[in-house]
């Protein structure tokens, strides 16, 4: 008699990404609300990387690198809205724009420097 009937060893039981999303969102919110630049950027990087990882793991994206760029685009728009509109929170907007720029840089670097074929094929 099996201790866990119906479960197979070939399937993973849980994904680590929801935990990182759950940490990234409040960290970024705290940084944005209180105007803490490093906390804002770090939380948004954690959130963006986790979203791209979830999209790759679930099969919605072929690579996580383009997912990083996809997450960065709405962040850049939000940061521009904070920095250059009547909302007038330039420090917070520039933190969001900085996180978007880092995500784009990571996505471009990953796309350029990741081999397209696996060794042995």
List unreliable stretches of 5+ residues. Answer: none
Number of strands: 0
Measured distance between first and last alpha carbons:
41 Å
Total of DSSP H or I helical runs spanning 4+ residues: 4
Q: What is the average of the pLDDT values?
A: 88
**Percent strand:** under 5%
Q: What percent of residues adopt helix (DSSP H or I)?
A: over 70%
Q: What spatial form do the alpha-carbon principal axes imply? A: globular
Over the alpha carbons, how many angstroms does the gyration radius reach? 18 Å
Output the helix-strand order.
HHHH
Major beta sheet summary? none
Class computed from helices, strands and strand pairing: mainly alpha
In short:
70% of the residues lie in helices and 0% in strands. With 121 residues, the chain is mainly α.
Describe the structure.
The chain is mainly alpha-helical and 121 residues long. It has a domain at 32-112. It is 70% helix and 0% strand. It contains 4 helices and no strands. It has helices at 17-34, 37-58, 64-84, 90-113. It is globular and about 55 Å long. The mean pLDDT is 88.
């Amino acid at each position: 008699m099996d201790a866990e009937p119906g479960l197979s060893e070939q399937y993973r039981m849980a994904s680590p990404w929801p935990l990182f999303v759950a940490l990234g969102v409040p960290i970024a919110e705290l940084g944005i609300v209180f105007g803490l630049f490093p906390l804002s950027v770090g939380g948004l990087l954690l959130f963006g990387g986790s979203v791209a990882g979830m999209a790759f793991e679930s099969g919605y994206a072929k690579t996580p690198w383009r997912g990083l760029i996809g997450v960065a685009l709405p962040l850049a728009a939000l940061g521009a809205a904070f920095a250059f509109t009547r909302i007038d929170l330039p420090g917070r907007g520039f933190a969001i724009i900085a996180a978007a720029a880092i995500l784009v840089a990571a996505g471009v670097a990953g796309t350029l420097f990741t081999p397209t074929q696996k060794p042995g094929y």
